[in-house]
Amino acid sequence: MAQAIVNNGVNVDALLAAREALKSAPEAAKFTWRASCTWKNGTFTQTKVQGFHGLGAEQKHKAEFSFDADHPEIFASEDLGATPVEYVLVGLVSCLTAGVAAVAQNRGVQLRSVEAKIEGSMDIQGILGIDSEVRNGFDGIKVTYQIDADATPQEIEAIVAQSQKRSAVYDVITNPVNVTVEVV
Amino acid sequence: MAQAIVNNGVNVDALLAAREALKSAPEAAKFTWRASCTWKNGTFTQTKVQGFHGLGAEQKHKAEFSFDADHPEIFASEDLGATPVEYVLVGLVSCLTAGVAAVAQNRGVQLRSVEAKIEGSMDIQGILGIDSEVRNGFDGIKVTYQIDADATPQEIEAIVAQSQKRSAVYDVITNPVNVTVEVV
């Protein structure tokens, strides 16, 4: 059986077991992901990620992750980190790529390499308030995969399509999410 | 004049000058932001950010930024980085917070500290394919600001509201963005 010798490093058996377990405990499927942001100076901020809630309990990453964000020098900032919009691209491409590995594993397809380029286009007349007809965010995002795997081009296409179908970040970006902002 | 002594580290004069310059050169306002993702193993990926296009030319951050993403151990992964959905939260909260600093500067409001908590809730019955009625992404995101500034609570509320109005990532998350994924 081909599947037995395929190893993309994804523990699909554990994921399928979790799916079965959550079917009878839907409350445990409710997750809350969190981050804490501190303004440093100008457009430079530092955001930390560690705790989250899921499986009915508080959870913690093994380490605290810290992310510097800033605007580039051409926007008169100090370029001390990636821009916020680039963080969104990182989230989308990493979500889809993890999905490619998981779906390939589930379908018994051995991956050798997966590379993805992502680009988001944006007319900054929106954020600068020059033209109110121009949106602030991306007017489109394009992801291009180059995948070396033991599979036909059609099978690879289907794996990528299934990853989109199950991707949390793809959903967040292609569909509206309600965001509430409050000051305490 | 209050504005003269306010310094949040944002060069608003340069931004206003850029806005004037771009009014007569709208092509220069077209930006493309990019990232390149390499699959490492399992759900672990590394995404690099450095080049982008804008002001009619190729641009480069001062340094290359690299981001590890993974799923946590409770999803049978190795937790070698923040999750993709947490990267989205980092992007949103850093975008809104940079906006708070810029708007405050433009309004002559001195900030002393800005802290933001962000949380996104998600029912993972979606991504696990348990219930097709459950969306894959966040069912809602909440951002809570704690701001110490030389301003009334009403002025602070208005600054935060204006930041939302001009935020690229807030737009990306609250409104649909077209995403194209292809395999070459």
In short:
Chain A is an alpha+beta fold and 184 residues long. The first copy, chain A, is 33% helix and 35% strand.
Question: Care to describe what's here?
Answer:
The structure is a homodimer of 184-residue chains. The mean pLDDT of chain A is 95. In chain A, α3 (84-106) crosses α4 and α3 crosses α5 (168-174). The first copy, chain A, has 184 residues and is an alpha+beta fold. Helix content of chain A is 33%, strand content 35%.
Topology:
Two copies of one chain form a homodimer.
Chain A: H1 2-5, H2 12-23, E1 30-41, E2 44-54, E3 57-69, H3 84-106, E4 111-123, E5 140-149, H4 153-166, H5 168-174, E6 179-183
Antiparallel strand pairs in A: 1-2, 2-3, 4-5
Helix pairs in contact in A: 3-4, 3-5
Strand proportion of chain A: 25-35%
Radius of gyration of chain A: 20 Å
Side by side, the strands of the main sheet of chain A go 1-2-3
Question: Largest interface, by Cβ-Cβ below 8 angstroms: which chains and how many residues each?
Answer: A-B, 126 and 126 residues
| Shape annotation of chain A | globular
The residue ranges of chain A in which pLDDT falls below 50 over 5 or more consecutive positions are none
Biggest sheet layout of chain A: 3 strands, antiparallel
Number of strands of chain A: 6
Helix/strand-derived category of chain A reads alpha+beta
Oligomer: homodimer
Overall pLDDT of chain A: 95
Give the helix level of chain A as a range of percent: 25-40%
Number of helices of chain A: 5
